[in-house]
């Protein structure tokens, strides 16, 4: 996913390793006043909505919660950000699987960038590493096309085979969006 956020051509493209557009991410509504109301969507490459997260407190430097609206198909997905001033923020995400079991994860973000590692959480403690977000500069032609630069800054998601892929992709886009708007 390109790190430069630009909605002028529609939702942000999230690429698969082969350069095809796998998903799209859009902040479909955002109240820039002090209300903090926002709606974000993860969409397929054909713009079908896969996941919608809403926030009533999407504000910089304040605890923020993004939640999936409750519905019969809802997995009650949730992302929470706990800002800590000059210290690294705490990011948590969770969802309920088809069997009704809640899965919890913690993102340990790098101090001055969007990258970091995502771990399972078991009884409040870090479990196994399931994913990593990396800041990279890439030279792939499908990324640099239309750019004056020969390389493009991207945020890359690497994850284990059994990880909750769509939740992690949406999370990656939220991280990038939040860091772009609020800074480090």
What does this structure look like?
This protein has 2 helices and 11 strands. With 184 residues, it is mainly beta. It has one domain (7-182). The chain has an 11-stranded antiparallel beta sheet with strand order 1-2-3-4-5-6-7-8-9-10-11, covered by helices on one side. Strand 8 and strand 9 (116-122) form a beta hairpin. The model has no long low-confidence stretch (mean pLDDT 87).
Main features:
184 residues; single chain; 2 helices; 11-stranded antiparallel beta sheet; mainly beta; globular
Topology at a glance:
Layout: E1 12-15, E2 21-30, E3 38-44, E4 49-55, E5 64-68, E6 78-82, E7 90-96, E8 102-109, E9 116-122, E10 125-138, H1 141-144, E11 152-159, H2 165-182
Antiparallel strand pairs: 1-2, 2-3, 3-4, 4-5, 5-6, 6-7, 7-8, 8-9, 9-10, 10-11
Write a compact overview of the structure shown.
Helices cover 12% and strands 45% of the residues. It has 184 residues and is mostly beta strands.
Which consecutive residue ranges, at least 5 long each, have pLDDT under 50?
none
> How much helix is in the residues?
10-25%
Mean pLDDT: 87
Q: Cα-atom Rg, whole angstroms? A: 16 Å
Task: Note the overall shape.
Answer: globular
Number of E strands: 11
